[in-house]
């Protein structure tokens, strides 16, 4: 059994059943509608014991592998084994996606190897991550543009002079920015829990991982596990990080996905072998990469009053029917903040908006975020019961997937709901047979 106290690159077997559902990709928007929205967005068409012995052997092999990688400039990590997907349990399509938001970060510090491995163990269909770039152009898994809240950067006196103030999405922000550190420097830091009310015992045990290491976790799982990476803060990253030959952050991002075999339209044979959703709050980034990859894309939606990351429009404006008709040429779904679907008032739910119905009418999936077990994140209507929240969103609102910090809880709920439905169907069938027998007896 995998131990959280071992190095985070420990290989361990994962066998939990995965589940999810799907909708078909919509047709393309009309040329006139597309031209109108391209003009608004500013874009155009774009081209001891046995266990101890085995652990020692594993560590020795990893050490040799690391030394080899140092000589050729490759990441110090066992990259994907490319195990034949034909022998793996396939990705199932029977119910909404269980999307592990930054891994199983309700238990383990976010975006770490351990958090992702735990999420897979608990039944995640997709593991989700945020992609940023280091000073030297390496892509890493990290949510914030600053390191202050979820690493031990404050303990590293050698970096005391790195604090900066930059403009991020129209506002000044001060802190230790990811873009001011090389990959080696970032690797020297250790990750900690974001929220003080969550388990702190794993603080300081795990390092920041690269995009390639994240991909390796998914590809080395014993069943097919999808990935759900975000092009994070692309405007800011492109301002501060430069790549050779005029390449952009988005080019580097897509290049790594293609390098490891992620390709194919939604539900295609290639996609089912290595499932991926590419997500972003920046619509122009999703449009920019549309000619680079046919992998399915998800447009993320923040608070309606907020401007998008790359245009002067509000998210309210770009959830109009005309925009949904336009953007469905580039994406297969939207990922809204859940409070934009059902606005709360004094922490009570109000009448749901029509966003889900309108998205479905445009053949767009809906994957809202973020579902958390703690009472401080639950509306009063759910009476401190996360299962009640899952039931509401899956059964009443009818979404197609959920971003959750607690993968295991969502998986257990879906298993329970599926079993209950089966039992109810069986009981109904039995009662129906009894009724027929009684009816037949009465006729005799």
Say what oligomer this is.
single chain
Largest sheet: 5 strands, mixed
Named CATH architecture = Alpha-Beta Barrel
Uncertain ranges: 1-28, 55-78
Helical amount: 25-40%
Number of strands: 13
- Count of alpha/pi helices: 14
Total domain count: 1
Give the termini distance in whole angstroms: 63 Å
Report the portion of residues in β strands: 5-15%
The topology string of helices and strands comes to: HHEHEEEEHHEHHHEHEHEHEEHEHEH
CATH fold category name: TIM Barrel
Mean pLDDT: 86
Radius of gyration: 23 Å
Written overview of the protein:
This protein is an alpha/beta fold and 444 residues long. It has one domain: TIM Barrel, CATH 3.20.20.190. Helices cover 34% and strands 12% of the residues. The chain is built from 14 helices and 13 strands. The protein has helices spanning 31-41, 50-72, 113-121, 183-187, 211-219, 234-240, 249-259, 269-273, 283-288, 321-327, 338-341, 355-361, 386-397, 407-443, and strands at residues 97-100, 126-133, 139-141, 164-168, 171-175, 226-231, 278-280, 297-301, 333-336, 344-345, 348-349, 365-366, 401-404. The strands form 4 sheets. Strands 1, 2, 3, 6 and 13 form a 5-stranded mixed beta sheet that branches. The chain has a 4-stranded parallel beta sheet with strand order 7-8-9-12. Helix 3 (113-121) runs parallel beside helix 5 (211-219). The longest helix is centred in the C-terminal third of the chain and has 37 residues, at 407-443. The protein is globular and about 90 Å long. It starts with 30 loop residues before the first helix and ends with a helix. Mean pLDDT is 86; it is low at 1-28 and 55-78.
């Amino acid at each position: 059994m995998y131990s959280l106290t071992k190095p985070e690159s420990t290989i361990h077997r994962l066998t939990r059943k995965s589940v999810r559902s799907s909708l078909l990709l919509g047709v393309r928007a009309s040329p006139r509608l597309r031209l109108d929205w391209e003009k608004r967005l500013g874009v155009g068409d774009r081209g001891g014991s046995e266990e101890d012995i085995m652990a020692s052997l594993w560590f020795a092999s990893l050490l040799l592998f690391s030394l080899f990688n140092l000589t050729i400039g490759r990441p110090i990590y066992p990259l994907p084994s490319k195990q034949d997907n034909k022998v793996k349990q396939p990705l199932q399509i029977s119910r909404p996606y269980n999307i592990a938001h930054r891994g199983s970060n309700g238990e383990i510090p976010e975006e770490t190897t351990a958090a992702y491995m735990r999420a897979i163990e608990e039944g995640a269909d997709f593991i989700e991550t945020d992609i940023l770039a280091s000073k030297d152009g390496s892509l890493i898994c990290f949510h914030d543009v600053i390191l202050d809240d979820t690493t031990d950067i404050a303990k590293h006196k050698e970096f005391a002079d790195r604090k900066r103030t930059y403009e991020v999405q129209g506002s000044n922000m001060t802190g230790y920015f990811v873009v001011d550190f090389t990959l080696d420097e970032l690797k020297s830091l250790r990750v900690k829990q974001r929220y003080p009310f969550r388990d702190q015992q794993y603080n300081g045990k795990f390092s920041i991982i690269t995009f390639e290491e994240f991909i390796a976790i998914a590809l080395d799982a014993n069943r097919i596990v999808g990935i759900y990476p975000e092009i994070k803060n692309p405007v800011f990253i492109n301002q501060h990080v430069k790549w050779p030959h005029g390449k952009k952050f988005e080019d580097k991002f897509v290049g790594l996905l293609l390098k490891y075999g992620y390709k194919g339209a939604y539900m295609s044979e290639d996609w089912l072998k290595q499932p991926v959703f590419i997500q972003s709050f920046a619509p122009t980034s999703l449009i920019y990469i549309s000619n680079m990859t046919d992998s399915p894309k998800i447009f993320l939606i923040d608070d309606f009053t907020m401007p998008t990351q790359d245009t002067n429009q509000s998210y309210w404006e770009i959830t109009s029917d005309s925009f949904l008709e336009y953007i469905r040429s580039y994406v297969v779904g939207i990922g809204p903040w859940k409070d934009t679907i059902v606005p709360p008032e004094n922490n009570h739910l109000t009448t749901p908006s029509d966003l889900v119905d309108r998205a479905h009418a445009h053949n767009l999936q809906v994957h809202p975020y973020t579902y958390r077990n703690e009472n401080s994140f639950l509306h009063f209507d759910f009476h401190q019961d996360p299962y009640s929240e899952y039931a509401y969103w899956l059964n009443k609102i009818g979404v197609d997937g959920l971003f959750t910090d607690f993968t295991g809880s969502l998986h257990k709920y879906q298993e329970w709901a599926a079993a209950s439905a089966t039992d109810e169907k069986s009981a109904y069938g039995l009662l129906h047979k009894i009724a027929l027998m009684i009816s037949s007896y009465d006729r005799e």
